[in-house]
Amino acid sequence: MTILFEIKKNYELQKVTWKEKDILVNTDCGVKQIRIWKDRALLDWHVRWRDEVGKNSLAVADRMIRTSEGKPWVDMGSEYLTLHDYVEGTHERSGHEKRWGLLIGNMLQAGLELQEEFSSVTKEDHYSFDACLAAIHKLSKEYNELVSVKNSLPEANKRLNLAMELKKASSHVPLPLFDSDTHMNNGGQIFNILFYRGSDDYPEHGYQPLRRLLTEWLKECGPYSLRKLLTCINEHFSLEREQGYLLLAEILTPWELQDCVVQLKNEELAHIVSYVKSFEQDWDFNRILLHCFTDWMDDKRKRVAL
Amino acid sequence: MSHSNETVNYGPILFQYDLYPEKIEEVGKVKKVISRRGTFALKETSLNEEEASWFTHVIHRLSEIGYHQIVPLYPTKYGDYTVQYGNRTYYLMPWFAGGDRFGLTREEAIIEEIGKIHFLTLKEQDFSPEVVDHSFQYLMQRWESRQLEMERFAEESERMPYMSPFELTYLSHFHHMMRMAEDAKRRLKDWYDACHSEKRYRSVLCHGKLSRNHLLYSHHGEPHLLNFEKAVLDTPVRDLAVFFRKAVHLSNWTKEEGGRLLSLYQRHIPLLDEEKSLLVSYISYPEPLFHSVDLYRHQRERYSQIEFVHRLEKRISAMRHIRDFCDLILTPPPPQPLDTNINTDHI
C-alpha cells in the first residue's frame, strides 16, 4: 500500500495497482517496473549509465522515470524506489547487429566516461590459475571424468599468460565499467526500439560481461553475425586499438576453466559429467570467439594498411 | 486508433512521453498529436546535441528570469526536453488552438514580447576593440563579396544578346542597389566609429528567427513566442532587423507604422545612437534583392520569368519602404515641449 501510494504521489499517476507484487504495477501510462535500492552510490551509477545510453532513441536502456519534481528516484527513508518502463519479450538478434552495436557501443562509451567517478561501486573477478590447478589435481584423483579438463590446462596457462601480457602492455588504459548481468535476453522491443533491461547489480570493471555477451551471440547467431556485430560496435566505440586489446585479453583468459572448477567443487558426481560436457562446449566456443575476434582485428588492421 | 505510417514512425519519440496517439496531423512544420492525454505539438528539428542543449537552456533561462510568454516544452518521462531520433531532434509543446486576442495586432505583440525579452537579458558587455573590429571586418568583407557577385551577374547579363525580363529588371535597378549597399556600408562604419568612441556594446538574448508564425495565442488570448532554436546572444538590432525586413511587406505598412512599432519596442529598451546606425545599416543593405538574384541563378526552373520579375520588383518596393523608414529612425526625436505651467517666479 505504501509503495503504491508513494508511486501515485511522486509520479502524479491517476491509477496504480499491482500487476506483480513488489515488481510490476499497472498505471495509466502503462506497465511499469519497480526497483528498490539500498546503496545510493550504486543507484547513482545505474541512473547515470542508463541516461548516457538513452541519449539516442533507437537503442536505449530502461532509464529511471522522473518524479513530478524531476528526480530519478523516490526517497523512502532507508531505501530508494525507482520506476522503469516494462517491455515484455525479446528483441531479435541476427539481422539487427546495427542496433545492438549501437547499444553495446554506447554502453562501453558510458562505462569508460564514468569509470573514474564510480570506481568505488565496482566488482571484479580475479583469476587464479594456481587455485584452478590445485582443485583439478585434487578432483581428478576422485573422478576419472575430468580428462578433457586436465588436457586443457597447458593451453589455458598459455592463454592466461598471453592475456596478462596484453593487460600489462595496456595497463595505462582505463577499462570501462559494464553492467554485470548483461545478456541478449535483456533486450526487448517496443516501437522498433531496442529496449534494454539493465540490472540492479554492481558493475564490473572490464570486459568480462561483454565477453559473455559475445559468446552468447556467437552460440545463437554464428560467426558471420558476430563479426557484423563487432563492426557495428566499433562504429560507436573503437575496438581497434587498446580497448580492443583489453577485450582480447579478456577473451583469452580461460574463465570457462575457473567456472567449471567452481561448479565441480560444489556438486555431486551425478552432475559432474554434464558440467564437463558443458565445459568442453564452452571451451570450443571460446576458441571460435577468439578466432573470430582476432580475425576481425586483423581485417581492420589490413584495411588501415591498404 | 489510427495505424497510419506516421503513428508508427513517431512511436519511438512519443513513447518517451508515454503518448499513444489516436491521430497525428501535419500542421505547418509541426505534428499535431491527438491522444487521450490531450493534444500536443511535436516539432522536428535538425538541432545537434550541443544546439539542443543551448535551446533547452534558453527556454529554462527565460523562465528563471521571469519571462513566461513562451510556449513551454514538455519533458520526456526521463526528464529530457528534446529527443534525438536518428539525425533529427524533436520536442513537444502544448497545442495552442488560439483564442481571442487582446487588443494588439500580431506585429505589435511580437515587438512587445521581444522588447520584454531584450530588456530582461540586456547586458552591457566589456568593450573589446578586437570583437568589434572582427564583427565589422567580417560583415564588411561579406557585403563586399556579395556586391562583387552581383556586379559579375550584371556584367554577364549585359553581355547577353537577348536579356531575359528578369535580367532587364535587375539591370535597370542595379545602380540603385549598389547605392543602397554603399549607404549600408557607410552606416556600418558609423556604428563602428561610435562603438570605438563610446567604448560600449550591448548584448541581449535574440530570438534569432522572429516571424509572425512564431507567435501563438493561448486560449486565454495571451501571446506566446515559440521556436527559440536559433536564439543567440547578440546585439538587439539583430532581431529588430529581421522583424522590420519582414514587416515592410505587410499591406498596411507605412513608415509611421514602423515608427510606432519601434516606439513600442523602445518603451522597453531605448536604442543607443550607434545601435540605430547599425539597425539602419542591417536593414538597408539590399540582401533580399541579392537573394532574388541567387534564386534566379540557381533555381531557375522553380518559378516562371514573370514570377521572378514580380518577386524582384516586390522586394525593390520593400527596400523603398525601408529607405523611408531608415530616414525616420535616424531623425532625432522632436524636442520636449516646454511646460507652459512652469512656475518662473523663482528665477
Automatic annotation (TrEMBL), chain A:
The lineage of its organism: Bacteria, Bacillati, Bacillota, Bacilli, Bacillales. This is Uncharacterized protein. It comes from Fictibacillus solisalsi.
TrEMBL record, chain B:
One of its GO terms (cellular component) is endospore-forming forespore. Gene3D superfamilies: 3.90.1200.10, Phosphorylase Kinase, domain 1 (3.30.200.20). Residues 38-267 form the Aminoglycoside phosphotransferase domain. The keyword Transmembrane does not apply. The keyword Cytoplasm does not apply. It comes from the Bacteria. It holds the Pfam family APH. Keywords: Capsid protein, Virion. InterPro entries: Aminoglycoside_PTrfase, CotS-like, Kinase-like_dom_sf, Spore_coat_YsxE. This is Spore coat protein YsxE. The lineage of its organism: Bacteria, Bacillati, Bacillota, Bacilli, Bacillales.
